[in-house]
Amino acid sequence: MIKFSTFLTYAGALPFLGCALLLTIDINQFQPFGSVQESLNTYSLLISSFMSGSHWGQNLHVQKAWKKYLQITSILIALAIWFSYMTLDFHQMIVVYILSFLALLGVDYRLRRVGLNSREYFQTRFWVSGLVIASLIISGIVSGTN
Question: Who has the most CB within 10 Å: 24, 31, 95, 133?
Answer without folding.
Answer: 133
